Model the fold of this input.
Amino acid sequence: MTEHLLKPQAKPTPHPTAQYWRKCQVEELFNLPFLDLIFQAASVHRQNFDPQKVQISALLSIKTGGCPEDCAYCPQSAHHKGVGLAKETMMDIDEIVAKAKIAQSRGASRFCMGAAWRGPKPKDIETVSKIISAVKALGMETCGTFGLLEDGMAEDLKAAGLDYYNHNLDTAPDKYNDIIHTRQVADRMDTLGKVRDAGLKICCGGIVGMDESRADRAALIASLANLDPQPESVPINQLVKVKGTPLENAHDLDWTEFVRTVAVARITMPRTYVRLSAGRTQMPESVQAMCFLAGANSIFVGDKLLVTPNNKEENEDSVLLAKLGLTAEEY
Ligand code: SAM
Ligand code: DTB
Ligand code: SF4
Done:
């Protein structure tokens, strides 16, 4: 009985877009009875991955605050003065490498570095290239999220040893300009194209819990699933409501709706790592377990995301993973 459930592929590789997903088809998945949806997603997960393995990433904000963009969810935007977050300069390379070593010793195989920029300047690319090479030399996978890229920058990052570029679509295309006014979704697509052309792997996801409708969530997942090839990694973030941001009073999303989003991402992107990303501090263990059943197979460990807390206690994740019999995937 269990045999067919446990016939995973060792490590799936990309990701041809098997079909074009119409928004209404994705919405139909969302509308399935909850347990049917989870069962379907769990089956897809087991056909494509070892369901006992979780990819472990760690995050570090290497350049915090003062961002010129006005993303309504983000505490790092200079537009949201009420947050009271100080603008910092770039962290020192030795400090970054020390943080990466700690993350590695706690089981992280990928180190994701974020900068609060609209996009890097040529000088910034030189700086982050040195940082990327130093982290890569530890034997970790590297990921960067630095905003919009100009021609040639993705190639430089790749040459420095970058494995993944994180660049989210964040919300439904039709909702994009309600949330962000300083750039267009086409700007994001342009950078994703540059990243793919440079041979980098793509980490591209979004945020739920921003007072969007289920149809909006379906549109976000459809736009991710229709990227061709599909992203290697899709982070599903639950909005972290930060005081002083325009979305501080967004309505709570019911937990079943979050799990549905994970499940629909799994079904529409069968060979993608689906990351249970921001928002885990607000989720009971049981909800996180349901997300793993529904196909999530990646998390951020560590006590901090970029600027907000991730875990309450240092060993919270190892306890949860041990309870569920999940182990870290090796790089
Ligand atoms: N500035 C770059 C950019 O926007 O691509 C990189 C850093 S930005 C902070 C990376 C991602 O963090 C965003 O795309 C968004 O998905 C996520 N994020 C930011 N604030 C968040 C929040 N309050 N809750 C959940 N996710 C958030
Ligand atoms: C992603 O999709 N989520 C991460 C990572 N990519 C860079 C960031 C989450 C940020 C949560 C709020 C904060 O701490 O700034
Ligand atoms: Fe800046 Fe990125 Fe935050 Fe938007 S999400 S304000 S681009 S750091």
